[in-house]
C-alpha cells in the first residue's frame, strides 16, 4: 500500500497549487523549492513495485500533472528551476513508462507536448533527455503518432527542436539523448506524411561522421538510423540516391 493517504494527496495538491501561484506571480523561486520533497516522495512511490499501482491511480484521480506544469513552463535555467523542471519531468516520465494508452490520452488532452518541447529547448542535458523520452513514449501509442502527424505545425515544431539538439548540441553529443531522438524519428517515419516532411526537416548530422562514430558500437541505435532511411526510401518520400549514399557510409 502507498504511504500517501488521500488526505496527504489533498495537502500535496494544496502545496503545488500554492507554489504554482507563487511562481506565476514572479515570487522568488525559493518559495517553490520545498515542494520538491513531496515530488521526490511521489517519484519513489511510483518507482516502488509495491506502491506503484496505488500511486498511479491516485495520480490519475487527482490530476496532479496539472500542478507540475507551471514548473515545466519556466524558461529560467538557474539550478533551482532546473531541479524543479527535472523532478516534474520525472513524474510524467514515470507515468508514460507503463505504455498505457489512457495515460497518453490524458497527457495529450492536458497539453503536455508544448511543455516537453520547451524543456527540450531550455533544459540541461538530463532534462532534455527525460522530455524527449516522454515524447518518444507518447509517439509509441497510435494516438500520439496521429497527434503529431495530423497537424503540420506540431510535426515541424517537434522536428525543429529535435533537429536543433542533433545539429547544434550543447557540448558533446549524448548517446542516450541521441537514441531517444532517433527512436522518435523512426516512429514518425511510420507515417507517410512524416516521411514527406523529412525532405526538409531531417537533421543534416545524421549523415555526419560525428554521429556515426557515436553510434557505431551501439547496434540498436545503428539499426534505428538504418531503419529511418529505409522507411523514407521505401515510402518514396525521399531521394533514392541520397538514401543509398547515406546507407553506404553506415557501418556494416
Describe the secondary-structure layout.
Layout: H1 6-24, H2 36-47, H3 52-62, H4 64-73, H5 79-96, H6 101-109, H7 112-122, H8 125-140, H9 142-149, H10 152-167, H11 175-188, H12 192-201, H13 209-215, H14 219-234, H15 240-249
Helix pairs in contact: 1-4, 2-3, 2-5, 4-5, 5-8, 6-9, 7-8, 8-9, 8-11, 11-14, 14-15
Folded structure, characterized:
The chain has helices at residues 6-24, 36-47, 52-62, 64-73, 79-96, 101-109, 112-122, 125-140, 142-149, 152-167, 175-188, 192-201, 209-215, 219-234, 240-249. With 252 residues, the protein is mainly alpha-helical. It is globular and about 45 Å long. It starts with 5 loop residues before the first helix and ends with a helix. Residues 19-35 and 236-250 have low confidence and may be disordered.
Q: What key attributes describe this structure?
A:
disordered C terminus, 252 residues, 15 helices, globular
Roughly what percent helix?
over 70%
Sheet with most strands: none
Mass-distribution shape: globular
Query: Compute the gyration radius: what is it?
Result: 20 Å
Report strand %: under 5%
Average pLDDT rating? 78
**What structural class should be given to the helix and strand makeup?**
mainly alpha
SSE sequence, one letter per element: HHHHHHHHHHHHHHH
Low-confidence stretches are 19-35, 236-250
The rounded distance between the terminal residues' Cα atoms is 50 Å
**Number of helical segments?**
15
Would you count the extended β strands for me?
0
